[in-house]
From TrEMBL:
Protein name, entry field: DUF4200 domain-containing protein
Key words, A-Z: Coiled coil
Residue runs in coiled coils: none
Primary gene name: Dana\GF14711
The UniProt record lists the keyword Coiled coil: yes
């Protein structure tokens, strides 16, 4: 802390370039703290000698060795306990692994047995349903066969007279060899009749299809012709409209052409008049024509100058004439 005048110094507790009144608080704080400032011992206190420091360090070393021995003993005992616990844990783990393998194998066997049993149950159920269906079919067939047997017996009893007639026909006729031959020929004729009827129905069906096809083609052709007629009428109307438009534009273009021709004629006449005026002005002044016929701008400038000059001359003449007239009257 400065005593006489402020100094340019800083301390651990802050700025010391202050007046004593302002730095007294920092000074008190500096006196009270022990972290950055060590208080000197009093004058009557014995200082610590090397022997005392050695004794203190030796005591601390002995205490630390005891603590170290105790910690090593505890560590060995804890390591032995840990080894025993690890062995027990490994044994328990091995037992649990074996038990898990056994249980897992048992569960897999149960699952396989369940799947195989479910598969067998499904197969047996399907087979049972098929057997039930076959039994029902057999029962139906047996009942139908019984009814057919009864009907056959009734039909046989009914057709016995016809059988006697067929036997008599075979005996009398030389065409048929036996009754079966006669029945086979009759069946063949009946089958031929059936085939002929089917063929006739098929041909009639083909004829009907051909007629429908012809009707369809005729209607399509009629529609096509009608569409062509409509297109032709539309084209005719378009042609008439185009012809009228062409005539209208022909009249307009003829009027434009006449206007263009008349404009060109007026232009040529104007150019001829300008040339004649230019010749007259040159002849009046008795000079040669220095400009060509296509140099219209120069010719017009020349004619404008000449006409301006003539206008000024005429004005002078008129003013002189008017002056003479005025003097004559005064005389």
């Amino acid at each position: 802390m400065p005593r006489r005048k402020p100094t340019i110094k800083t301390d651990v507790i802050g700025d010391l370039d202050l007046s004593p009144e302002q730095a007294i608080e920092d000074y008190k704080v500096s006196k009270q703290q022990d972290q950055y400032f060590v208080k000197p011992p009093n004058w009557d206190s014995a200082g610590e000698s090397i022997e005392m420091l050695y004794i203190a360090n030796l005591r601390e070393y002995d205490a630390m060795k005891k603590v170290q021995v105790q910690l090593l003993t505890d560590a060995k005992r804890q390591s032995a306990l840990n080894v025993q616990r690890i062995r027990k844990m490994y044994k328990m783990q091995e037992k649990l692994r074996k038990r898990f393998v056994e249980v897992n194998g048992f569960i897999k066997d149960c699952a396989d047995k369940k799947r195989s049993s479910d598969k067998c149950i499904r197969e047996e159920s399907v087979l049972h349903e098929e057997v039930i269906k076959e039994i029902d079919e057999f029962k139906t067939s047996i009942s139908s066969l019984k009814s057919f047997r009864n009907d056959l017996k009734a039909t046989t009893a009914k057709f016995q007279p016809y059988e006697r007639v067929l036997n008599d026909v075979v005996k009398v006729s030389d065409i048929f060899i036996s009754t079966k031959d006669c029945i086979d020929r009759c069946d063949a004729l009946m089958l031929a009749q059936v085939e002929i009827n089917e063929l006739g129905a098929q041909k009639l069906k083909e004829i009907e299809e051909m007629r429908q096809r012809m009707v369809q083609l005729t209607s399509e052709a009629a529609l096509t012709v009608l569409g062509l007629k409509n297109d032709l009428a539309r084209l005719e109307r378009s042609y008439v409209h185009s012809r009228a438009t062409c005539l209208k534009w022909e009249k307009i273009l003829s009027a434009c052409k006449d206007a263009t021709i008349s404009y060109n004629l007026d232009k040529e006449r104007m150019f001829d008049g300008i040339q004649i005026l230019y010749r007259l002005l040159c002849k009046r002044r008795d000079i040669t024509q220095s400009f060509h016929s296509h140099e219209i701008d120069r010719i017009m400038n020349f004619a404008f100058g000449e006409i301006t000059l003539l206008s000024s001359v005429l004005q002078e003449l008129e003013s002189a004439k008017s002056d003479k007239t005025g003097t004559g009257h005064m005389c």
